[in-house]
């Protein structure tokens, strides 16, 4: 049953006038996005508040049910629900609505509107599919014939995007844009994933949001796969509001580690690790990136709680145990969450939770760039955006962009298709001073990553 969307204050502590302004903005965003919620004709057909167990961190969590958009796309069917979690009701609802809008826009396409061509035959600027990071040379040498990798002479579908540095219209492989694009339809570049799919009040905001997600996932994969010992941020040095929010995570016995996962791009990235040594799930992780260091940590805290709650609900709904998961067969977030629910997994994150490196909030927040686009492109990485906004979403003054940074380290879900190519696994930990020599490919972390 859909709960009436009334406003209640969840966090009664407001540190500054700016915080109050943010709360007002969130209420305005929620009221605007709520227009797409209508039981019979809306994009969102239902909204429900997810109960949070009394011994879990105090947060607001919502799930929205989305209409079946299969008749409106030539892509694969997708799930019909999305969730959002935050420390206030409005923020949680905005997050849930935003996720639903992003997935909706990111799945709708018609083949007749795509351009089919061979890369080498395109006269227009285009993203070379062979420059998109996926597999390392040693992986390619041992791959079976089931995975045909895309080359410059393969005919694939393209959609027009924009080069974020030059502003030039650029053709982008459609399989990198649409979440519902069938992986087997063309030679392989990457599996569909939501990285870089983001909504915003305008194009610039959506692009910044999409870039932030690309940057956070790049950092997580870089440092996890190389088992890099990162600096733990001393939580007694963070702003008072963040200290209070962190105490919500630890109030019932969980341990919290927040790591400075900033890379060579210079954008603040925080990884939050929640450890429960008494109950399951034993391990929950999340990451966030952005220009405001305090907001980055707050977002990481909200995400790690959402990850934990989602895993709790999955554990309640399944008869499977972590011991039944074959790591080599993992191909979903749900299976990763179940694997990392087991207490034996805690030791696999010792390089983070027992890290001897430390930093302060001031150290984490220092030398922050003023633009994510500039941070990426000034570091020598090409970046692109494709506008996937549908007409009904544009009418809400919302835009959805799919941002692609082809040479950052990508997140993967399918364990048999681990993306270890590109060179950043070798270069970034050395450049950041965490390693003295590049990691040997044989030393790459083989434990399936816990990213939600």
Give an account of the 3D structure.
The chain has 12 helices and 14 strands. With 452 residues, it is an alpha+beta fold. The chain folds into 3 domains: 30-106, 2-Layer Sandwich (Double Stranded RNA Binding Domain), CATH 3.30.160; 111-205 and 382-421, Herpes Virus-1; 219-365, 2-Layer Sandwich (Double Stranded RNA Binding Domain). Strands 4, 5, 6, 7, 13 and 14 form a 6-stranded antiparallel β-sheet that branches. Strands 1-2-3 form a 3-stranded antiparallel β-sheet. A hairpin with a 7-residue loop joins strand 10 and strand 11. It is globular and about 60 Å long. This is YcaO domain-containing protein. Residues 84-452 form the YcaO domain. Pfam families: YcaO.
Summarize this structure as a short list of keywords or feature phrases.
single chain, 452 residues, alpha+beta, Double Stranded RNA Binding Domain, Herpes Virus-1, 6-stranded antiparallel beta sheet, 3-stranded antiparallel beta sheet, 12 helices, 17% strand, disordered N terminus, YcaO domain-containing protein, YcaO-like_dom, TOMM_cyclo_SagD
What is the topology?
Layout: H1 17-33, E1 44-49, E2 60-66, E3 81-86, H2 89-107, E4 115-118, H3 137-140, E5 155-163, E6 169-173, E7 197-200, H4 203-225, E8 232-233, H5 240-250, E9 255-260, E10 269-275, E11 283-289, H6 293-317, H7 333-339, H8 350-353, E12 358-359, H9 361-365, H10 372-377, E13 384-387, H11 391-394, E14 399-404, H12 424-431
Parallel strand pairs: 8-12
Antiparallel strand pairs: 1-2, 2-3, 4-5, 5-6, 5-13, 7-14, 9-10, 10-11, 13-14
Helix pairs in contact: 1-2, 4-12, 5-6
């Amino acid at each position: 049953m859909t709960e009436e969307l009334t406003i209640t204050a969840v966090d009664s502590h407001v540190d500054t006038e700016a915080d109050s302004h943010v709360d007002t903005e969130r209420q305005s965003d929620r009221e605007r996005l709520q227009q797409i919620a209508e039981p019979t004709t809306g994009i969102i057909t239902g909204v429900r508040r997810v109960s949070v167990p009394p011994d879990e961190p105090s947060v607001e969590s919502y799930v929205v049910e989305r209409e079946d958009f299969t008749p409106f796309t030539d892509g694969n069917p997708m799930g019909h629900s999305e969730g959002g979690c935050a420390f206030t009701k409005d923020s949680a609802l905005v997050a849930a609505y935003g996720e639903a809008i992003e997935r909706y826009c990111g799945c709708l396409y018609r083949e007749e509107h795509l351009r089919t061509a061979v890369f080498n035959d395109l006269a227009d600027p285009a993203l070379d599919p062979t420059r998109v990071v996926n597999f390392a040379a040693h992986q390619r040498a041992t791959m079976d014939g089931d995975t045909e990798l895309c080359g410059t002479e393969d005919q694939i579908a393209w959609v027009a995007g924009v080069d974020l540095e030059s502003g030039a219209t650029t053709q982008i492989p459609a399989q990198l844009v649409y979440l519902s694009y069938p992986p087997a339809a063309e030679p392989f570049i990457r599996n569909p994933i939501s990285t870089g799919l983001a909504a915003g009040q305008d194009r610039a905001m959506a692009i910044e949001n999409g870039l932030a997600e690309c940057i956070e996932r790049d950092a997580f994969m870089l440092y996890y796969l190389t088992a890099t010992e990162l600096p733990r941020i001393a939580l007694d040095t963070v702003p008072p509001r963040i200290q209070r929010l962190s105490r919500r995570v630890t109030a019932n016995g969980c341990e919290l580690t927040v790591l400075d996962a900033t890379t060579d791009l210079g954008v603040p990235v925080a990884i939050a690790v929640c450890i429960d040594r008494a109950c399951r799930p034993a391990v929950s992780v999340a990451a966030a990136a952005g220009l405001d260091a305090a907001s980055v940590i707050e977002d990481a805290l909200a995400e790690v709680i959402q990850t934990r709650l989602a895993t709790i609900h999955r554990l309640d709904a399944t008869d499977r145990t972590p011991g039944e998961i074959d790591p080599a067969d993992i191909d979903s977030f749900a299976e990763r969450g179940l694997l990392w629910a087991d207490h034996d997994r805690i030791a696999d994150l010792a390089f983070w939770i027992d890290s001897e490196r430390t930093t302060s909030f001031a150290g984490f927040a220092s030398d922050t760039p003023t633009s994510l686009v500039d941070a990426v492109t000034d570091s020598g990485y090409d970046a692109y955006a494709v506008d996937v906004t549908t007409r009904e979403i544009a009418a809400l003054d919302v835009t959805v962009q799919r941002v692609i940074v082809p040479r950052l380290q990508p997140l993967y879900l399918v364990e048999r298709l681990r993306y270890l190519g590109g060179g950043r696994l070798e270069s970034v930990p050395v450049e950041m001073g965490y390693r003295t020599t590049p990691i040997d490919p044989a030393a790459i972390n083989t434990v399936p990553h816990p990213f939600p």
